Amino acid sequence: MILNILKTRFTAVLQALTCGADSYLEMIRPSQDSKFGDFQANMAMPLAKKLGKPPREVAQQIVEQLDIGDICAPPEIAGPGFINLRVNDEFIQTLLLKVIADEERLGITATEPAKRKTYVVDYSGPNVAKPMHVGHIRSTVIGNALTRMLRFCGHHVITDNHLGDWGTQFGMIIHGYKNYLDTEAYQMNPVEELSRLYRLVRQKMDDEQNKETAATVLHETAKLHAGDADNLKIWQEVLPHSQDEINRIYQRLKISFDHTLGESFYQPMLADVVDELHKRGIAVETNGAIGIFFEKEEVPMLIRKSDGAFLYGTTDLATVKYRFDTFKPDAVLYVVDFRQSQHFEHLFKAVRLAGTDNVELTHVRFGTVLGEDGKPFKTRSGDTVGLNGLLDEAEHRAYEIVKENDKDNTPEAALCETARRIGIGAIIYADLSQNRESDYVFSYDKMLAMTGNTATYMQYAFARVQSIFAKGDVDAIKLRQSVGESNGGLTPPALFAVSHPAERALALELLKFGEAIDLALRDYRPNVLTAYLFELSNRYSVFFEQCPVLKAEDESIRTSRLLLCDLTARTLQKGLELLGIETVERM
Known about the structure:
Blueprint lengths: L1 H16 L3 H5 L2 E3 L8 E3 L2 H8 L3 H11 L10 E3 L3 E4 L3 H13 L16 E5 L13 H17 L3 E5 L7 H13 L2 H6 L1 H17 L4 H15 L3 H25 L9 H4 L3 H10 L4 E3 L2 E4 L8 E4 L7 H16 L3 E4 L6 H13 L6 E4 L5 E2 L16 H19 L6 H21 L7 E2 L2 H4 L7 H17 L4 H12 L13 H10 L2 H10 L4 H20 L8 H25 L8
Parallel strand pairs: 5-6, 5-10, 10-11, 12-13
Antiparallel strand pairs: 1-2, 2-4, 3-4, 7-8, 8-9
């Protein structure tokens, strides 16, 4: 909030000195050390090279033309040309009062209508014929967090779960269903039996001595795609069972989609897509196959094999066309792991060759979930860890922690609900707090820790505020309303005591919330928001230790600190909500 205001004030000065002021505005940042002020503007040095002047002279020129007297104390020039800025306490108070009065948005203004965009966010996308596993958690929670943040900023977001419901995995299920089905087991638990069939056929296909199974699976897949009645019947029977299981996981994660359009939805469109690209000369035929060739690349994007079969890329091209025609997006985000990087490079190039340049296409790629051994996370038996089991274990461990710390004989249902929120929140946050392009090591112990950069730490900070208000018998809503009624929410009386360093640091951090969301969306990195929430929790922890709240020295300071506590809790709650994480009242 303050940073954006400062950038606005600097803009006029920089535009008078040079063109391309935006790059220099990015050099206004929060100070790393409070002794140098609250913010620091470092553009004088690079600007001096461009203007052919000494940096301090340029810094002085900027300061002399800068109109920020209502925001900051007089700027100070340090070293070779750093401009140090300290925000006026009165300005902090004024902004805080506006934020407190804004129940829903905490003072964060939505993107102005003229700049709002329509986004299609493609995420999760599991293969339907097999259970969701740990690898699906990253796409699912990253996509959900980006969706929530974009919508909060006022953009129109359309979510589409592009299910893998038509590929080779169904040929495996069909082959297993025809040859190895345990009818009784299937009737009792169809999903579990289908999973067994998938694993069995996979094992047989991986056996180099058994090439017959692999060939049979490909044959069954081809028959399905050709409309074979028996294979279609099996596909139609098993598909709902798999989808039900997937939907149960989404319900646990509190995630829903606007559209769930699988590969099968686009199957009727594939031949037309290939024909159109071929007629336009974008795709060419070589030895009976059709592909799209790119400059300086030997490997083409194959869209039809010589035997007439279509490929993954063909489906994605049909999907792009459908989305462009139906949703009219300004941007399409594909939240898919890094192993698909070349595929999306080719897909985006193909779309550009087809003549679409005005839609942003972004591969929001991410790394791998690793085990303690530094290898992809597996069970002890070597199988990929199922997502349902992962969530179960997180909730179980959270329950043990909650039960052990319960001193009030909390009802069992309440304990279970708290454990659910903590356990699932821990998994979501552990993923989102990583740089999405990096691999990370999965650890229940670390993600459920009460200290450090974990959801549990944030939830604990929120719960601690609730305990203060409960202990003091303070109604937070009435407290906020009384501020607005007595003050109009405009002229700051002596409501905020920001003289103590811990109070001031917390107040400034609270006013950075909107900027954290903007930065997170700039390159689609939710870890920017988690880093902000972690820093806010740290600031609050120091404040809590150093500044008595209920036992403050006088009533005005008590009110001030209660308001800071309440705003901290509301900011943590909204920030976690944007990440898809729920808070808890007690821990």
